[in-house]
């Protein structure tokens, strides 16, 4: 088993919508068909905020001016090493021009600004529904969620670990 993976995840917000990426372009993709936020793996020497800014820039072309740390996901998939995901939101980003904010293009899928009220109707990882509920309801304190999936992509356990552990599933 390899060591844990460190990644970031950011949900960009404007006009009461989140920018969501529909992962439909890669043939081999653990996220194939799912809707996710913007993010990716740490590179050598990066702290979470360095990774966050680089991934948002690389995937969307947007420059983050500020962001808000929201919490941590511990993603465990089919007895593999865990992935620790630092979760952020931002409504303060720019395109570097005065043009209308576009829907960016990405080789991993198709971006779309989705109203928050419609997010839960998308094809999401089941565990992401817990996290997105925290984001959409503007939970103030940071969260820690432990999400355990089997090889069939089924969520077998979900835990809220921010205070006293609470089993959600």
Structural class: mainly beta
- Helix share bin: 10-25%
The average pLDDT score comes to 88
Largest sheet at a glance?
11 strands, mixed
Strand composition percent: 35-45%
Inertia-based shape? globular
The Rg value, from CA coordinates, equals 16 Å
Q: How large is the count of helical segments?
A: 2
β-strand number:
11
Account of the 3D structure:
- With 169 residues, this protein is mainly β.
- Helix content is 14%, strand content 43%.
- A hairpin with a 5-residue loop joins strand 5 (63-77) and strand 6.
- The protein is globular, with a radius of gyration of 16 Å.
- It starts with a strand and ends with a strand.
Condensed summary:
Helices cover about 15% and strands about 45% of the residues. It contains two helices and eleven strands.
Structure keywords:
43% strand, 2 helices, single chain, mainly beta, 169 residues, eleven-stranded mixed sheet
